[in-house]
Amino acid sequence: MKAVVLVGGFGTRLRPLTLNTPKQMLPILNRPMIEHVLEHLADNGITDAVLSMGFRPDAFRDAYPDGTCAGVEVHYAVEPEPLDTAGAIRFAALDAGIDERFVVVNGDVLTDLDLGALVAFHDAHGGEGTIALHRVEDPSAFGVVPTDADGRVQAFVEKPLREEAPTDLINAGTYVLEPAVLARIDDGRKVSIEREVFPAMVADGALYAMAGDTYWIDTGTPAKYLEAQMDLLKGLRGERRDGIHPGAKVSPEATVLRSVVGEGAVVEAGATVRGSVLMAGAHVEGGATVERAILGPGAHVAADARVDDVAVLGQGAVVGAGLRMSGGTLGIDEHLEVEVEVDEEGS
Questions:
Q1: C-alpha separations of 135 from 65, 105, 106, 145, 182 in Å
Q2: Domain range spanning residue 316?
Q3: In CA terms, which of 67, 99, 181, 245 is 20 to 30 Å from 136?
Q4: How many C-alpha atoms does 87 have within 13 Å on its Cβ side?
Q5: Is the confidence at residue 340, as pLDDT, over 70?
């Protein structure tokens, strides 16, 4: 089987980290996110994948010039223009010559889903497509998928109000599709699989869904991007991991707890870093505190400053000595010259 991996989005919710870098090339525990996604495919027996690309395809090609990533052979399919989810799937599948059943995964979702079980469920039910479902506490930000007792999808409700959601099972972004689905997708225009293709399949009784209780996280926001890495450090997915890159420089007199510190990053004596991600080359001076924050490549937190509450510093951004930044974002190469306290939405 082959897989189509959707990596073409602009990652707007993770800006400024994604202004020049595709979301799936951001590091998760000092490795690009795409490597974690493709490694999961390889662990489930999939050896060939098509990357459906739009924004900065060169970033993927430059990183994996031999067409191999995490043990998977990759084919690069670059959309001539944004085609939305279904359009991207159709374009990538045809570009790679896929003419048999295939898997689709979102490149910004990390999961331990058993793909073999999903394929077996699909085969047993004989539909055109099968969706993996995941149970969440608040389904209002997702596509909700109620099914009958046999797993046939009854409706596909996109982002319902929490109190009106017919179920707490959401579309987990992993699908098994027959090639016949491609014929349902118009050529040459944007087509949403969630809003157009799946509802049409529901109307024909051709769409099924399998509920599961497995690890799943959408890394598309700063809070979730942090959470995904803290989960790995805490051992919620396999054994506990060490987040300190061998090429990082962490003073023995610094306090670094439950954090990821990238290659070339510096944490000076007297600095405190908790529950945070420091990308390659980031620098935290003595007396500074970084707590539950993300420092982009080369970002700098000066002496006695404090950065916390899911604050995000873009590449080369600087928080001056003695200042505090709580929440919000600091753009590429921007300098914070006054103390700022904002909420997670940046207001």
A1: 38, 18, 17, 10, 28
A2: 249-341
A3: 181
A4: 18
A5: no
Structural domain total, the chain: 2
Total-model pTM? 0.89
Structure tokens at 198: 């799946």
Where does a domain end: 200, 220, 240?
A: 220
Q: What is the pLDDT of residues 136-147, one digit of tens each?
A: 888 887 878 899
What phi-psi label fits residue 188: left (phi over 0), alpha (psi between -120 and 50 degrees) or beta?
A: left
Find the mean pLDDT for residues 50-63.
90
Look at residue 343 in the predicted model and tell me its pLDDT: 53
Record the tokens describing residue 314, joined without a space: 């873009």
- The H or E element that residue 57 is part of is helix 57-63
337/322 Cα distance (integer angstroms): 10
**Would residue 225 count as lying in a domain?**
no
Asked whether the beta carbons of 13 and 61 are under 8 A apart, the reply is: no
The segment with the largest mean pLDDT, out of 108-117, 136-145, 149-158, 272-281, is 272-281
User: Going by C-beta distance under 8 Å and a sequence separation of 6 or more, which residues neighbour residue 31?
Assistant: none
